[in-house]
Design goal:
It is a single chain. The chain is an alpha/beta fold. It folds into two domains: 212 residues, Signal recognition particle, SRP54 subunit, M-domain (434 Repressor (Amino-terminal Domain), Orthogonal Bundle), CATH 1.10.260.30; 187 residues, Rossmann fold, CATH 3.40.50.300. The radius of gyration is 29 Å and the shape is elongated. It starts with a helix and ends in an 11-residue tail after the last helix. The protein binds guanosine-5'-diphosphate and magnesium ion. Magnesium ion binds next to helix 6.
Length: 440
């Protein structure tokens, strides 16, 4: 992962042009990666079509770093399909909020009921679980167990009373929830191994009976290519307001997320990441985009398109360091490249594996780059090439000219000297470092 980061940084300071052939090659790889991740073919086609169009547009050609721009486009498009901003649960204006769960058997509905209950309880709610899965012999008991683990009330049909009729159970449960003043009701429903009409009719009837504020469609992230057909069947049969992706702890690569979100247009709201009740979190589209981007080494591929150029530039820079001819002028140039990259923090947040780095950099102030730039600009060309010229009166002049202080000018000179020294060692010794990042 850190290898990858290093490569990514080297791409950060690169500029160069992407040819249509580069774009086509990259798009082909993205396509392969998405198919490998079990994203449905029509979704892949649609997606790569949009990426290709944008990658060949002026937006990219005019960018200082087209390769990075393409990565950004891929990321943006992924986040958009995955729902853009994270969506929150919709609560009822009055009376209990009703959340109904639907999905195939084994998708993780009953487990999710417990997870949601615990999560909501922590948030000060008083959820009640409703056992409206009367299909499997031990389904009711399973819900009672997770309810107990979550510390939430469970409404289950009494033997002989309403057994076999989940719609009736759901209706009764609503009455009980109102009486006992539960503010959230979570209705667990039955699933079958495959989509079937009977089940769908039952789910639709339960929906009608409880008039839910949210219907969450729970889907196993490992479902692969069946994701689209299953999601469409549930959308037509019950309709749902949001999606919960379960079993994301497995090695599922998120393809189902992209397919379901893209085909149904419904937001993915939660991610289930294990069997325990705490293995649960709101779904973050940007994180999933990173997970998908991590696939097939898309970043690396794009960087490869740039590699030849990159190597040339790296060699030239290393040469300068080694021969002591790296000047404040070069320093300024590198700084401008960094700055033109747009928000460095935003860029880092976008890169798989760079999240930790992003937090570290949260203290980093981009306006400092601007001040540094101003200081160097206030120097004469001679001073830029030979910082040794910078005596007290010159430093005062520069500070005035750049709207900074002598202390800041001093600091910049020190940082530059340190960076140049470090880089010289590196250039001779060969340990990979990141030019331009030293003084940050
Ligand atoms: P339901 O048939 O839709 O109610 O599914 P269940 O909630 O009974 O879950 C089926 C199986 O999947 C159970 O063994 C759960 O422990 C397991 N399970 C549910 N959610 C997750 C998850 O996010 N990760 C993993 N690894 N297992 C899960
Ligand atoms: Mg169940």
């Amino acid at each position: 992962l850190s290898d990858r980061l290093t490569q990514t940084f080297s791409a950060l300071r690169t500029k160069g042009k992407l040819s249509p052939a580069d774009v086509d090659g990259t798009v082909r790889e993205i396509r392969r990666a998405l198919l490998d991740a079990d994203v449905a073919l029509p979704v892949v086609k649609d997606f790569t079509g949009r990426v290709r169009e944008r990658a060949l547009s002026d937006e990219v050609n005019k960018a200082l770093n087209p390769a990075q721009q393409v990565v950004k486009i891929v990321n943006d498009e992924l986040v958009t399909i995955l729902g853009g901003e994270q969506r929150r649960l919709q609560f009822a204006k009055s009376g209990p909020t009703v959340i109904m769960l639907a999905g195939l058997q084994g998708a993780g509905k009953t487990t999710l009921a417990g997870k949601l209950a615990k999560w909501l309880k922590n948030d000060g709610h008083t959820p009640m679980l409703v056992a409206a899965d009367l299909q499997r012999p031990n389904a009711v008991q399973q819900l009672q167990v997770v309810g107990e683990q979550a510390g939430a009330a469970v409404y289950a049909p009494e033997p002989g009373n309403g057994v076999g009729d989940p719609v009736r159970v759901a209706k009764d449960a609503m009455k009980v929830a109102r009486d006992r003043q539960h503010d959230v009701v979570i209705v667990d429903t039955a699933g079958r191994l495959g989509v079937d009409a009977e089940l769908m009719k039952q789910a639709a009837s339960i929906r009608k009976a409880v008039d839910p504020d949210e219907v969450l469609f729970v889907i196993d992230a490992m479902i692969g290519q069946d994701a689209v057909a299953t999601a469409q069947a549930f959308q037509e049969g019950v309709d749902f307001t949001g999606v919960v992706l379960s079993k994301l702890d497995g090695d599922a690569r998120g393809g189902a997320a992209l397919s379901v979100a893209s085909v149904t247009g419904r937001p993915i709201m939660f991610a289930s990441t294990g069997e325990g009740l705490d293995d649960f979190e709101p779904f973050y589209p940007d994180r999933m985009a990173s997970r998908i981007l991590d696939l097939g080494d898309i970043l690396t591929l794009i960087e490869q398109a740039q590699k030849a150029f990159d190597d040339d530039q790296a060699r030239a820079t290393a040469e300068k360091f080694a021969t002591d001819s790296f000047t404040l002028e070069d320093f300024l140039e590198q700084m401008q490249q960094l700055k033109n990259m747009g928000s460095i923090k935003g860029m880092l947040g976008m890169l798989p594996g760079a999240r930790g780095m992003k937090e570290q950099l949260d203290n980093f102030d981009e306006s400092e780059l601007t001040r540094t730039e101003a200081i160097i600009r206030s120097m004469t060309p001679a001073e830029r090439r030979l910082p040794k010229l910078l005596n007290g009166s010159r430093r005062l002049r520069i500070a005035k000219g750049s709207g900074t202080t002598v202390t800041e000018v001093n600091q910049l000179v020190i940082r530059f000297e340190q960076a140049a020294k470090m880089m010289k060692t590196v250039a001779k010794g060969g340990m990979p470092q990141i030019p331009g990042m030293g003084p940050l």
